[in-house]
């Protein structure tokens, strides 16, 4: 095995838990998207958003399934917000059913003892969040957190049919429910909007997103080669806590460990120490190059900066991957090609973890203002959210 230099220049975070990668990357199903009223938005505005999203390798049919909010979230830095289509006198009332206090620790407190406004830097602010069940009859939208819902019978009797009932899950379809062996079809016909990491959700809440910068960023310290090199103290780090999976990911890691030896550190309850959260966006935040297993490469190319990651499918076996990692470690010019994107793109974390802002309630408020007022329901919810189709790990 090649020896590494005194300053190990590359820190690669390999994230391979099925929960993370099914939950981070978009998978597009045959879900019938709502019909868009073309006259409600000017043609130039529609085309601008579509062109911006096309740059991320989304095909036209995929773009057509996105709401204007979803398209805008992928548009370039500084892009104009969608027009306010739904105008209401007064504020929209958003009721978080039953689990509002639990969700508050992340989406309001950001895992601190301080409460933050959910409308901070939000493009739509005329909204109020309630946890009070008695507001059911007057709420404009009701959010149901499926992960903590024990059965469909927990949902209240619907009394206001012009409400938006929203199912929220930050998990993959494989782990939608925490309680019981529930069947998703039992929730058919109950929800009007989806709120997931998928960009074709009615309310998209991705773990992170990439946007084009409005100007070249090469003078920023985050692209200083010396600054990046000085931060690197390890060659490869694997982080994960889901020890299961049919793609034999931990077998793959074990082979890498045999090849890389002490140059590979493993954190998580699988094989070594325990860390409570699996980290993806820290890969970019810590100026590392993510190595990805599980999510299809084409999905990665749609959501991540160009030439910013390695994908295991590009390598014949763990030995080939390890050899390329050593190659990058010894050739600065090739290694820094994987950081060149930092000049032109920005990765944004808005999920409430690691000190970041949470935009969940902001996104609901924006959707209430921007989404087209189409009457719809998820009559076959599994056509949109399906573990057998979308989680083949």
UniProtKB/TrEMBL annotation:
What's the protein's topology in the membrane?
A: Single-pass type II membrane protein
Where in this chain does the record put each Fucosyltransferase C-terminal domain? 272-383
Q: Mind telling me which residue stretches traverse the membrane in this protein?
A: 7-28
Keywords carried by this UniProt record:
Glycoprotein, Glycosyltransferase, Golgi apparatus, Membrane, Signal-anchor, Transferase, Transmembrane, Transmembrane helix
EC class (word): transferase
Q: Which GO terms describe its cellular component?
A: Golgi cisterna membrane
Enzyme Commission number, as recorded: 2.4.1.-
Q: Which domain of life is it from?
A: Eukaryota
Q: Which residue range or ranges hold the Fucosyltransferase N-terminal domain?
A: 92-208
Which Pfam family, giving just one, matches this sequence?
Glyco_transf_10
Q: Name one GO molecular function term.
A: fucosyltransferase activity
Give the pathway annotation.
Protein modification; protein glycosylation
Protein localization: Golgi apparatus, Golgi stack membrane
Q: Which family does it belong to?
A: Belongs to the glycosyltransferase 10 family.
Q: What is this protein called?
A: Fucosyltransferase
Task: Identify the taxonomic lineage of the organism of origin.
Answer: Eukaryota, Metazoa, Ecdysozoa, Arthropoda, Hexapoda
């Amino acid at each position: 095995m090649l020896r590494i230099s005194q300053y190990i220049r590359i820190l690669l975070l390999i994230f391979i838990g099925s929960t993370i990668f099914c939950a981070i990357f978009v998978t597009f199903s045959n879900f019938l998207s709502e019909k868009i009223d073309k006259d409600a938005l000017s043609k130039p505005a529609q085309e601008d958003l579509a062109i911006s999203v096309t740059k991320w390798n989304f095909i036209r049919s995929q773009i057509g399934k996105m709401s204007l909010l979803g398209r805008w979230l992928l548009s370039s830095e500084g892009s104009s917000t969608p027009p306010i289509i739904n105008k209401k006198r007064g504020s929209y009332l958003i009721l978080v059913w039953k689990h509002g206090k639990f969700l508050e620790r992340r989406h309001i407190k950001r895992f601190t003892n301080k409460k933050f406004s959910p409308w901070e830097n939000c493009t739509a602010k005329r909204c109020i969040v309630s946890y009070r069940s008695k507001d059911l009859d007057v709420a404009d939208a009701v959010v149901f957190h499926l992960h903590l819902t024990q059965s469909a019978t927990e949902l209240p009797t619907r009394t206001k049919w012009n409400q938006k009932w929203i199912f929220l899950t930050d998990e993959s379809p494989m782990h939608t429910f925490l309680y019981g062996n529930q069947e998703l079809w039992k929730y058919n016909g109950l929800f009007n909007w989806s709120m997931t990491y998928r960009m074709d959700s009615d309310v998209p809440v991705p773990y992170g997103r990439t946007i084009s910068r409005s100007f070249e960023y090469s003078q920023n310290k985050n692209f200083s080669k010396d600054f990046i090199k000085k931060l690197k103290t390890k060659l490869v780090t694997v982080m994960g806590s889901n020890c299961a999976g049919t793609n034999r990911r931990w077998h793959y890691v074990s082979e890498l460990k045999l090849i890389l030896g002490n140059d590979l550190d493993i954190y998580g309850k699988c094989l070594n120490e325990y860390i409570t959260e699996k980290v993806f966006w820290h890969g970019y935040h810590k100026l590392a190059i993510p190595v990805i297993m599980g999510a299809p490469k084409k999905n990665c190319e749609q959501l991540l900066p160009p030439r910013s990651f390695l994908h295991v499918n590009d390598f014949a076996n763990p030995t080939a991957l390890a050899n390329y990692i050593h190659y990058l470690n010894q050739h600065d010019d090739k290694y820094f090609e994987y950081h060149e994107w930092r000049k032109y793109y920005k990765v944004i974390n808005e999920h409430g973890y690691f000190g970041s802002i949470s935009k969940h309630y902001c996104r609901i408020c924006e959707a209430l203002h921007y989404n087209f007022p189409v009457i719809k329901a998820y009559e076959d919810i599994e056509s949109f959210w399906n573990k057998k189709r979308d989680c083949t790990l």
